Amino acid sequence: MKQFLTDQVNDRLKTALGAGVETPSATETGASNSSEAAAVENIESDPDVETTLEELEAYQIVKAIAVAEAKPQRIVHRDAKTYFAVLLDDNNRKPVARLHFNTKQKYVGIFDEDKKETRHPIESLDDIYRFADEIRETVKRYL
Q: Which intervals carry biased composition (Low complexity) (predicted)?
Protein backbone atom coordinates (compact mmCIF):
# COMPACT_ATOMS: atom_id res chain seq x y z
CA MET A 1 0.00 0.00 0.00
CA LYS A 2 2.80 2.41 0.94
CA GLN A 3 4.66 1.73 -2.32
CA PHE A 4 1.46 2.20 -4.31
CA LEU A 5 0.88 5.62 -2.72
CA THR A 6 4.51 6.59 -3.34
CA ASP A 7 4.23 5.60 -7.00
CA GLN A 8 0.94 7.51 -7.38
CA VAL A 9 2.43 10.67 -5.87
CA ASN A 10 5.52 10.39 -8.06
CA ASP A 11 3.40 9.99 -11.20
CA ARG A 12 1.32 13.05 -10.32
CA LEU A 13 4.41 15.13 -9.54
CA LYS A 14 6.05 14.12 -12.82
CA THR A 15 2.94 15.17 -14.69
CA ALA A 16 2.67 18.45 -12.77
CA LEU A 17 6.32 19.30 -13.32
CA GLY A 18 6.26 18.21 -16.96
CA ALA A 19 9.10 15.77 -16.40
CA GLY A 20 9.33 13.28 -19.22
CA VAL A 21 12.43 11.64 -17.78
CA GLU A 22 12.08 8.52 -15.66
CA THR A 23 13.31 9.20 -12.13
CA PRO A 24 13.65 6.87 -9.14
CA SER A 25 10.87 6.96 -6.58
CA ALA A 26 11.20 8.89 -3.33
CA THR A 27 11.73 5.69 -1.37
CA GLU A 28 14.52 4.53 -3.68
CA THR A 29 16.42 7.80 -3.50
CA GLY A 30 15.73 8.55 0.15
CA ALA A 31 14.72 12.07 -0.88
CA SER A 32 14.22 13.77 2.47
CA ASN A 33 13.99 17.43 1.45
CA SER A 34 12.19 17.14 -1.86
CA SER A 35 8.63 18.05 -2.71
CA GLU A 36 7.98 14.40 -3.49
CA ALA A 37 8.99 13.30 0.00
CA ALA A 38 6.85 16.01 1.57
CA ALA A 39 3.84 14.93 -0.46
CA VAL A 40 4.40 11.29 0.49
CA GLU A 41 4.74 12.21 4.17
CA ASN A 42 1.46 14.14 4.04
CA ILE A 43 -0.36 11.14 2.63
CA GLU A 44 1.17 8.77 5.16
CA SER A 45 0.73 10.99 8.21
CA ASP A 46 -2.87 12.13 7.77
CA PRO A 47 -5.31 10.34 5.49
CA ASP A 48 -7.73 13.31 5.66
CA VAL A 49 -5.23 15.58 3.87
CA GLU A 50 -5.38 15.26 0.10
CA THR A 51 -2.73 17.00 -1.98
CA THR A 52 -4.23 17.67 -5.38
CA LEU A 53 -2.54 18.23 -8.70
CA GLU A 54 -4.06 21.72 -8.77
CA GLU A 55 -2.41 22.56 -5.43
CA LEU A 56 0.95 21.34 -6.70
CA GLU A 57 0.59 23.39 -9.88
CA ALA A 58 -0.27 26.49 -7.84
CA TYR A 59 2.74 25.79 -5.62
CA GLN A 60 4.97 25.75 -8.70
CA ILE A 61 3.58 29.15 -9.73
CA VAL A 62 4.21 30.67 -6.29
CA LYS A 63 7.66 29.09 -6.21
CA ALA A 64 8.49 30.50 -9.66
CA ILE A 65 7.55 33.96 -8.43
CA ALA A 66 9.42 33.61 -5.11
CA VAL A 67 12.70 32.45 -6.66
CA ALA A 68 13.31 36.03 -7.75
CA GLU A 69 14.24 36.62 -4.10
CA ALA A 70 15.34 33.22 -2.69
CA LYS A 71 16.86 30.00 -3.98
CA PRO A 72 14.30 27.47 -5.25
CA GLN A 73 15.22 24.80 -2.69
CA ARG A 74 14.26 27.21 0.11
CA ILE A 75 10.64 27.41 -1.09
CA VAL A 76 8.71 24.38 0.15
CA HIS A 77 5.12 23.33 0.71
CA ARG A 78 3.04 21.68 3.42
CA ASP A 79 -0.50 20.55 2.95
CA ALA A 80 -3.04 20.76 5.76
CA LYS A 81 -6.74 20.00 6.01
CA THR A 82 -7.91 23.54 5.30
CA TYR A 83 -5.08 25.06 3.24
CA PHE A 84 -1.89 24.34 1.31
CA ALA A 85 1.02 26.34 2.74
CA VAL A 86 4.00 27.67 0.79
CA LEU A 87 6.84 28.35 3.21
CA LEU A 88 10.36 29.72 3.21
CA ASP A 89 12.99 27.38 4.72
CA ASP A 90 10.29 24.85 5.69
CA ASN A 91 9.48 27.18 8.60
CA ASN A 92 5.83 27.79 9.48
CA ARG A 93 6.88 31.17 10.90
CA LYS A 94 7.88 32.22 7.38
CA PRO A 95 4.70 31.73 5.34
CA VAL A 96 4.96 32.93 1.75
CA ALA A 97 1.36 32.15 0.73
CA ARG A 98 -1.56 29.90 1.55
CA LEU A 99 -3.69 28.23 -1.07
CA HIS A 100 -7.28 27.62 0.01
CA PHE A 101 -8.52 25.19 -2.65
CA ASN A 102 -10.71 22.91 -0.51
CA THR A 103 -13.94 24.83 -1.12
CA LYS A 104 -15.93 25.79 -4.21
CA GLN A 105 -14.40 29.29 -4.24
CA LYS A 106 -10.61 29.19 -4.41
CA TYR A 107 -8.49 31.74 -2.54
CA VAL A 108 -4.84 32.68 -2.35
CA GLY A 109 -3.71 34.00 1.03
CA ILE A 110 -1.07 36.73 0.98
CA PHE A 111 0.76 37.88 4.12
CA ASP A 112 1.52 41.48 5.12
CA GLU A 113 4.40 42.77 7.25
CA ASP A 114 2.57 41.71 10.44
CA LYS A 115 2.07 38.19 9.02
CA LYS A 116 -1.65 38.84 8.78
CA GLU A 117 -3.20 36.82 5.98
CA THR A 118 -5.47 38.44 3.42
CA ARG A 119 -7.44 35.99 1.30
CA HIS A 120 -8.04 36.94 -2.31
CA PRO A 121 -10.55 35.00 -4.44
CA ILE A 122 -9.18 33.56 -7.69
CA GLU A 123 -10.95 32.05 -10.67
CA SER A 124 -7.97 30.18 -12.13
CA LEU A 125 -4.37 29.42 -11.26
CA ASP A 126 -3.24 32.18 -13.62
CA ASP A 127 -4.79 34.71 -11.22
CA ILE A 128 -1.94 33.98 -8.78
CA TYR A 129 0.38 36.00 -11.02
CA ARG A 130 -1.61 39.14 -10.08
CA PHE A 131 -0.06 38.83 -6.61
CA ALA A 132 3.54 38.38 -7.78
CA ASP A 133 4.75 41.66 -6.26
CA GLU A 134 3.19 40.84 -2.89
CA ILE A 135 4.70 37.34 -2.90
CA ARG A 136 8.17 38.71 -3.68
CA GLU A 137 7.81 41.35 -0.94
CA THR A 138 6.81 38.68 1.58
CA VAL A 139 9.92 36.64 0.79
CA LYS A 140 12.13 39.76 0.98
CA ARG A 141 10.88 40.48 4.52
CA TYR A 142 12.19 37.11 5.74
CA LEU A 143 15.69 37.55 4.29
A: 31-42
Is 108:61 a contact under the CB 8 Å cutoff?
no
Is the distance from CB of 85 to CB of 92 less than 8 angstroms? yes
* Residues 75/62, Cβ–Cβ less than 8 Å: yes
Is the same domain home to 35 and 67? no
- Please check whether residue 99 is in contact with residue 122, taking contact to mean a CB–CB distance below 8 angstroms: no
| Bridge partner residues of 141 (DSSP) | none
Q: What is the CA radius of gyration of the chain?
A: 15
Q: Write the DSSP string, 10-69.
A: HHHHHHHHT--S----HHHHT-SSSHHHHHHHHHHH-TT----HHHHHHHHHHHHHHTTT
32 and 2 part of one domain? yes
Regarding whether 106 and 73 lie in a shared domain, the answer is yes
The structure's pTM equals: 0.68
What are 117-139's pLDDT values in tens digits?
Answer: 999 999 999 999 999 999 999 99
